[in-house]
Write a structure and sequence with these properties.
With 273 residues, the chain is of the alpha/beta class. It is built from 12 helices and 7 strands.
Length: 273
């Protein structure tokens, strides 16, 4: 069994920090597969290795003045319970619940299951969302590894990815996701992946979701058939100031169209390794 988080530490994060300043080490955020409570830490590796849908969320940066290991978010003494159970005041809406809703749709939507997985469904079936959230492996990766503050400019995220592009490429090679959700309203992560890391790869098909009533850029999906890889252009999971138009269905819709056109695409991950 491959130990993905251990590989990240030994092959990537430790060498990455070997020549860093003390300030850089303090702010550095380790990421990867979220460790599950009540299991050995490598339990998630086994699940990820066997999963036909390896979903990785590419985030911006950790919005605190210090770095930590977000792989431990579910087992952290202070915040783990709320993150894991989707309960508590902070779980009513926002970052974690929105990721959980999208994650549910990406794991459970099936070809021919027209219209079942939508915003109304995930709102009404929280118990199903929680079950998937607690049982399926998920990867969270920060595009900018140095922790920041509550707001970070897209230009800063882009600059960090440009600087660390070889290291980010190595992280993707180790984790080998086949569904990457780019969580940024200005498309900095999506553009970085499609125009740099995968610029030399052939896009089999592109899907768009018309976004009416807002000046925000359209979400969508690109499918790379040779790599068996889906890259989704989403929005940042926070809903602060965006409640009227931010709905998971805008991610579900292009993904469902993709599944309908390529029903066997994601099942081929193991053959691609």
């Amino acid at each position: 069994m491959a130990n993905f988080n251990k590989q990240l530490d030994e092959q990537l994060f430790n060498p990455w920090m070997s020549n860093a300043t003390e300030e850089e080490k303090k702010g550095f955020c380790r990421d990867g597969l979220l460790i599950m409570p009540d299991h050995a830490e490598d339990f998630v590796d086994e699940l990820w290795e066997k999963s036909s849908r390896r979903v990785m969320f590419l985030l911006k940066d950790k919005n605190t003045p210090y770095g930590d290991d977000i792989r431990r978010w579910f087992v952290d003494q202070e915040n783990g319970k709320g993150n894991w159970t989707l309960t508590g005041e902070t779980m009513k809406r926002g970052f974690i619940p929105n990721i959980a809703n999208i994650f549910y749709g990406l794991q459970m939507d099936q070809p021919g299951d027209e219209g079942r997985i939508n915003n109304e469904y995930v709102v009404k079936h929280k118990e199903e969302v929680l079950k998937v959230w607690n049982s399926c492996p998920i990867a969270l990766v920060e595009a900018k590894k140095q922790a920041g503050v509550s707001h970070v400019a897209s230009s800063a995220v882009t600059a960090a990815m440009e600087k660390d592009k070889d290291l980010l490429r190595k992280e993707l090679e180790i984790l080998h996701p086949n569904i990457i959700v780019c969580c940024d309203a200005d498309d900095s992560q999506f553009n970085f992946l499609t125009q740099q890391l995968f610029a030399d790869k052939k896009v089999e098909k592109k899907y768009d979701y018309p976004y009416e009533g807002t000046n925000m850029k359209n979400p969508g999906l690109w499918y790379y058939s040779e790599e068996k890889l889906v890259i989704i252009k989403s929005y940042h999971p926070t809903t602060r100031g965006k409640e009227k138009w931010w709905i998971p269905e805008r991610v579900f819709s292009p993904f469902h169209k993709f599944l309908t056109d390529y029903p066997e695409a994601l099942s081929a991950l193991q053959d691609k390794k």
